[in-house]
Amino acid sequence: KAGVTQTPRYLIKTRGQQVTLSCSPISGHRSVSWYQQTPGQGLQFLFEYFSETQRNKGNFPGRFSGRQFSNSRSEMNVSTLELGDSALYLCASSGMTGAVIGYTFGSGTRLTVV
Amino acid sequence: SQQGEEDPQALSIQEGENATMNCSYKTSINNLQWYRQNSGRGLVHLILIRSNEREKHSGRLRVTLDTSKKSSSLLITASRAADTASYFCATDANYGGSQGNLIFGKGTKLSVKP
Question: The dihedral of CA B22, B24, B28, B32: what is its sign?
């Protein structure tokens, strides 16, 4: 079955702009999580959605937001981009609501802010 | 915030040798997972060990968990050049029953030379 699909793969934006990233989870998976990876801070949790509801949120400013649609596809939005937002953004999907059996990650979106 | 701390940060070995990576964490956990990441791409789930398990095997992988010491180790036996990647441990802490929030360590960069 198809894996987790993230689009676009690469993105270059200018400071002050906004950006929307998309993630399509594995068919049947209802949980989607987002992570930011930078060389300095490593992998950090952004937020998690399940059945269109945000269940959990990491310690990021309000410029970072997300949503999930009824087909479980998720988008994350970053407004008023800063240079420090340059990162690899990863999403992960999971089919379990109880005990976690591990997450399937997409290949990521590489965002560069100039 | 980082919960897991991998040790060593980098490891270089010859093909056929075993590679051992260690991970320490700070809070109580539901489970601990290991992921592999090839050069800036997505994470691949390797193995999950639950808090009530002490050891788990999967192919050439062996994971141990010591909850009294809050530590885990990943052993890759008979390593291959294709094992060259960064390896991360991640804990899934039960914060009020919320899920989807994996806390990652900074990773061990493994280089396997042919």
Answer: negative
Cross-chain CB nearest to B45 (options A43, A104, A106): A104
Cβ atoms of A87 and A81 closer than 8 Å: no
Phi, psi (degrees; rounded to nearest 5) at B82: -70, -10
d(CA A74, CA B5): 30
- Reduced to 3 states, what is the DSSP secondary structure of residue B85? strand
Angle at A16 between CA A112 and CA A67, to 5 degrees: 75
Whether A55 and A64 have beta carbons less than 8 Å apart is answered as no
Set of chain A residues whose Cβ sits within 8 Å of the Cβ of B30? 99-100
Cis peptide leading into residue A25 (ω within 30°):
no
| pLDDT-based confidence at residue A96 (cuts at 50, 70, 90) | low
pLDDT digits 0-9 by tens, B63-87: 999 999 999 999 999 999 999 999 9
- Per-residue pLDDT tens digits for A40-58: 899 999 999 999 999 889 9
